[in-house]
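step: validate -> pass
step: tokenize input -> pass
step: predict -> running
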Amino acid sequence: MTLWVIRILFLSLCTVAGYAITQMQPDLISSPIAGPFIGFGLGGLLIGIDEMVKGLSLRAFSAMTFGLLLGTLIASMIDRSQIFAFADTSTLWVIRLGLFLSFSYIGMILAMRSNKEDFYLIIPFIRFAPQHKPENLLLLDTSAIIDGRVAELLEASYLEGIVVTPRFVLHELQHIADSNDAIRRARGRRGLDTLSRLQKSEKLEIKIHEGDFKDETEVDAKLVRLAKLLGAKLVTTDYNLGKIAELQRVPLLNVHQLAAAIKNVVVPGETLSLRLAREGKDKGQAVGYLNDGTMVVVNQAQSLIGQQAQVQIVSSLQTGAGVIVFADLVNTSTVEATSGGK
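step: predict -> pass
step: emit ->
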């Protein structure tokens, strides 16, 4: 809304300026009506240009400027080479105009299409950061956004920093949300809801990064390159992406590893109350789950499925998918008798 107030004020000033020119310089614009119209038209043209380039970043503008200067320089060198000295004056003017327009356009396009790393070697991009605190960037991948636990960690201030989400990750989320598969569609929509929730949080600073790497086809490869370029910490739940990032020495936070480090630890001999949810793999077994999702296999408890039971931890087994805990039923009559004796 503030932007449109400024634009209306600017249009008004342009209109008044056009009228003032007709009064002060009647030789330049003789008609008092034409001046305000010319001023209003010029202001409208500038606002239209502003609308067209509103998605243009300072980095892209720097690249276009450099390409324009480079193209102009090459055109000027060709013009000074006297290669077109045979042409007459009117033809030479057309040739020069064509040279400068052609090489300026080609220079801008090449600069815009070049890899940002190559462009930084010529014109380094200086990132202005507050001096009182270091800039801690957290680069979220698709899996971390869909997982949702990262949002809770950020909102609880267990993770601190500027959250960076690349535009190509948003495109991938949208593609997942539009999938024909119901499960993938639900995951994609959950990720979009999580991003919306983070953007509405007053405690967090969220930035959408427009950078892309056209020479890379895989999103994982783009994420690793962008994390190295920005000096950001990559936040993910993807095991394979985490390994690739570690091999390339990219700072990494794997949410699954964090959850495994802080989850409840059960030890043999410990007794707990557990709701048995389904049958186990072997005969007579029942399966329940701890609050953190750890699977507990209870021997000789199939008849108690759907009920709450007292179990005693016997052992645990570490697998690639996590920890599986094995337990036995506690003799209820013995427990009651012991309690009654006390």
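step: describe -> The chain has a mean pLDDT of 78.
step: cleanup -> pass
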